[in-house]
Design goal:
Oligomer: single chain
Structural class: alpha/beta
Radius of gyration: 24 Å
Number of domains: 2
Strand order of the largest sheet: 3-6-2-1-9-11-12-10
Shape: globular
Number of strands: 18
CATH class of the largest domain: Alpha Beta
Strand content: 25-35%
Helix content: 25-40%
Length: about 400
């Protein structure tokens, strides 16, 4: 029928009972005639447990030996799942990343996949076996074990699907798809049947935690259809695919979803000279400290000076503020201020390309609720605003309502 790559996260394989349930689910697909490659994470909490062990030895533990330690979590899971499948009479074979030969660069703890040798997997599939692969890991050119960073099992699944030219990559998790926004904030949030790679990438980067950004990037680059499904209940999930198919373009929703990020902080330097290169003098030292800058606003005054505002992750706030204060002294700035009690609200949708006035409608909805906008950022398919953190839930609900994203009666 089809070649399917499935990925099961830590909560899906969090106990022996859940591993047994996953085995039953896999067999259900096998009985439909599908060829299956299954990627699994470590059991829920295991990676944290192993990391804590390492920190007890050395609080700064990282690099090669940490990767050797952390990859044992997935090795446990692949073996147990293969045993569960074999017990049920289905031939299965487990592989670590190194055994598959998932070749990565040598950036330990955050490696990137360079290539995959899928010959052994193809041979197993030809023999009717179910292949079980450890996610999150690979080996570098010298055979050293590497890990792909948190959430890297998603990337493993997508990369294997690309290498095998699979018909679909299915990501099984503890939610049953991608929603118009977080159902914990808006109870009426609706599960999307389909969303584009572009939209999912924006939503992932703007705060949606359903999929790892790198996995979505990989899927989009190699045009691997992704489907998000629940491990615990049946359903069609959400299909993430390209928007090449124009047949539904007439009914394309203007807005597909609302994302939000609580982990924002804002910094402002006032009264710096409005001269070429001043932006680099401000942001260069921040970048050198490996602090990622998100939104940027520059306001030019009448006196030949400029005010410069930008946002960073809340965890980087104190470090960035300290760097900015040193820069202010060097540039003779008037003052430096900061605010680590802000959030970012974003609307996302490919339908924006063909509809005018979406941003102004967003601003109108927020204004009606008395929500002041501190910063604005736009792209072709998204509009983001920074607001005070106390308005997060009110803002999300108002936007969800204002753009008619709630579950309609015919969908219920």
């Amino acid at each position: 029928m089809a070649l399917i790559v499935q990925k099961y996260g830590g909560t899906s394989v969090g106990s022996v009972e859940r591993i047994e349930a996953v085995a039953d689910k896999i067999i259900g697909y096998k009985q439909q005639g599908h060829d299956l490659v299954v990627v699994v994470s470590a059991m829920s909490g295991e990676t944290n447990r192993l990391t804590d062990l390492a920190r007890q030895i050395d609080p700064r533990a990282r690099g090669r030996e940490l990767d050797v330690l952390l990859t044992t979590g997935e090795q446990v899971t692949i073996a147990l799942l293969a045993m569960a499948l074999q017990k049920r009479g289905y031939p299965a074979r487990s592989y670590t990343g190194g055994q598959v030969r998932i070749l990565t660069d040598d950036a330990h703890n955050k490696a990137r996949i360079l290539s995959i040798d899928a010959d052994n997997i193809r041979h197993d599939l030809e023999l009717g076996r179910i292949v079980v692969v450890a996610g999150f890991q690979g080996v570098d050119q010298d055979g050293n074990i590497t890990t792909l960073g948190r959430g890297g099992s998603d990337t493993t699944g997508v990369a294997l699907a690309a290498a095998l030219q699979a018909d679909e990559c299915q990501i099984f998790t503890d939610v049953d798809g991608v929603y118009t926004t977080d159902p914990r904030v808006v109870a009426e949030a609706r599960r999307l049947e389909r969303i584009t790679f572009e939209e999912m990438l924006e939503m992932a980067s703007l705060g949606s935690k359903v999929l790892q950004i790198r996995a979505v990037e990989f899927a989009g680059k190699y045009n691997v259809p992704l489907r998000v499904l629940s491990s615990f209940e049946e359903g069609e999930g959400t299909l993430i695919t390209s928007d090449d198919n124009e047949e539904d373009s007439v009914e394309q929703a203007v807005i597909s979803g609302i994302a939000f990020n609580r982990d924002e902080a804002q910094l402002t330097i006032n009264g710096v000279p409005d001269t070429p290169g001043v932006a680099y003098e401000i942001l260069g030292p921040v970048s050198d400290a490996n602090i990622e800058v998100d939104m940027i606003v520059q306001n030019i005054g009448d006196d030949g000076s400029t005010d410069f505002t930008f946002t960073v992750h809340r965890n980087d706030y104190e470090s960035a503020l300290e760097i900015l204060q040193k820069t202010a002294e060097k540039l003779g700035a008037r003052e430096v201020s900061g605010n680590n009690r802000i959030v970012k609200l974003s609307i996302v949708g490919v339908g924006m390309r063909s509809h005018a006035g979406i941003a102004s409608r967003m601003f109108e909805i927020l204004a009606r609720e008395g929500i002041n906008i501190l910063m604005i950022s736009t792209s072709e398919i998204k509009v983001s605003v920074v607001v005070d953190e106390k308005y997060l839930e009110l803002g999300v609900r108002a936007l969800h309502d204002g753009f008619d994203l709630a579950e309609s009666e015919e969908d219920e």
